Amino acid sequence: MEDSTIHKELEAQIEGSKNMMAKASDTIMVEDVSSYPIFVLYRHEVELGIPLKKATNLEEDWHINASTLEEFVAKQIINTDRVDNFKSVYKSPDQFLCLFVVDKSGATFVFLPRS
Fold first, then answer.
1. Among 56, 71, 75, 93, fewest CB within 10 Å belongs to which?
2. Above 90 in pLDDT, residue 12?
3. Contact at 8 Å (CB) between 98 and 109?
């Protein structure tokens, strides 16, 4: 399946949660927790971030946790020597949500527009 198709499907699945994630992103930045909020979307248990939303139907919905670049580095998901590279591709959190999507095929970063 092509990336744009995956992004559209994912965006449709999380449409009802985007406002909540945008508010959480703003809080993470305003409270100086991090300049790099990351939202972890998963269907099987992961120990990463703070839970924001529990999925009610795992066929159509995602659990969503709020995390940060700093936690990803602390848990060695992003190696310290890759932090500058990550920051260079990270899109403005005022305009985009950074998602770390974990599913049966693996994990990937996705940036979706906030609105």
1. 56
2. no
3. yes
